[in-house]
Write a structure and sequence with these properties.
Largest sheet: 6 strands, mixed
Radius of gyration: 21 Å
Strand content: 25-35%
Distance between the termini: 9 Å
Low-confidence stretches: none
Helix content: 10-25%
Length: about 300
């Protein structure tokens, strides 16, 4: 029976593992961190899905928890980072702790390991009330909060927090949002600043007490007293060690989503013409890889 190695315990990796569970195919997931769920869990667990079949209107964390219930958690090797894939027969994964040989390997590392993008301001490092991810934001209710970003997560957080406080500020460097502006359309208590960028901060000890923003098209500035600052500028990916052909920062795959005869890449880490980096296409790729593997001896 085939033995499958999965690199990454994000949503697509977990989904693929759930497919293998149904087929009773042995597998091991190698996960570089101490938790599952990938960036969904770390960056926007409470974002509501609109385009994942069966989860429309549900929070992202619900999807992760459902997948978690469908896999064998004892098959996950946490805090192991894959540093090389050695081929020349069956692929061997070299991690920072062990070596594993598999019949086939499926890479599902998403956008890879990452570090959050900062505002780049003097004094920013070490401020305990400057946050770059939110797993839970109940503690921000009623607080003075400045949110930087123009994507769906920033808009979602701004809308929710403005229901509990009239001191929530949303700052974006462009005149239009990347996310859906309808999200905040009726948020009467939300202060929106377009197009503004972070300019400087004032801190007391390890706490940011106010943030100054500057008009991206002029010289005027605005000082915003804060209890918390939330920065949602995305992340800077850390390059993966995989030495396969790339398209930009992503792994180039063929029509079978393979990068070599025994190694596949699916989800956000894979690239091909017309590729959409969303969960639903990743699920379809996982289904296709499983179907192909079932045809092999």
């Amino acid at each position: 029976m085939k033995n499958i190695g999965i690199i990454g315990a994000g949503p697509v990796g977990l989904y693929f593992a759930s497919l293998l569970e149904k087929e009773k195919i042995p597998y091991v997931i190698i996960e570089a961190t101490d938790q599952i769920g990938g960036q969904i869990f770390n960056l926007y667990p409470h974002k509501k899905f609109e385009d994942v079949v069966g989860y429309e209107g549900k929070e992202a964390i619900t999807f992760v928890e459902d997948l978690k219930s469908k896999v064998n958690l004892s098959n996950i090797k946490f805090n192991e980072k894959v540093i090389d894939i050695v081929e020349g027969g069956k692929p061997t994964l070299i991690t920072n702790k062990n070596k594993y040989e598999f019949d086939y390997v499926v890479i599902t590392v998403g956008l890879g390991m990452y570090t959050p993008r900062t505002m780049g301001l003097e004094g920013e490092e070490g401020c305990k009330n400057i946050l770059y991810a939110l797993n839970n934001f109940d503690f921000l209710y009623g607080k003075r909060v400045a949110i930087f970003g123009g994507g769906d997560s920033a808009l979602d957080w701004s809308k929710e927090l403005s229901l509990h406080s009239d001191n929530v500020h949303l700052i974006h460097r462009r005149t239009e949002f990347r996310g859906n502006p309808e999200t905040i359309k009726n948020s009467k208590n939300l202060h929106v600043h377009l197009p503004y960028v972070p300019f400087k901060l004032t801190r007391s000890g390890d706490t940011c007490t106010s943030i100054t923003i500057k008009n991206a098209q002029g010289e005027d500035t605005v000082d915003i007293p804060v209890d918390y600052v939330v920065v949602n500028f995305g992340s800077v990916p850390v390059n993966t060690p995989f030495k396969y052909e790339h398209l930009g920062n992503f792994l180039k795959v063929n029509e079978k989503y393979a990068v070599s005869p025994r190694v596949f890449a699916i989800g956000d880490c894979a690239s091909y013409e017309g590729k959409a980096r969303r969960i639903e296409p990743g699920k379809k790729e996982a289904n296709a890889v499983l179907s192909y593997l079932l045809t092999l001896a």
